[in-house]
Amino acid sequence: MKLSLFTPENTLIEDKDLQELIVPSVKGYLGILPGHAPLVSLLQAGVLKYLPKNSENWQSLALGWGYLEVHSEGVRVLAESAKTKETLDKAKAEQDLKQTLAKLERMDLEPKEREKLEKEKLWLESQLEL
Q: Rounded to an integer, what distance in angstroms lies between the CA atom of residue 17 and that of residue 54?
């Protein structure tokens, strides 16, 4: 099974051979193995984990909102954003999370603003899980 992962800025992974993939869908985490049935799913912010072929070491990255397509040749992920341990600025993510949590404490937030902040909180928390 091959994995390709794209963001608007770049291609992070292209045709990487995998043994297994775990992705954060809006319905919970999905496990995908070779031969999985075709599927299209909406992804939410979280940690995407994959086990490369012929390896015992899981790799992970923080994934923003996006889409997953499982097809006969493999898996394609189109993400709004993604960060690896190498591209993550942990101090900035921690600071941004503090600011987002402070904003969420306000009682006068409009529902759309609260939803936006909750999504931002999820994205920041997934980065700090790496």
A: 9
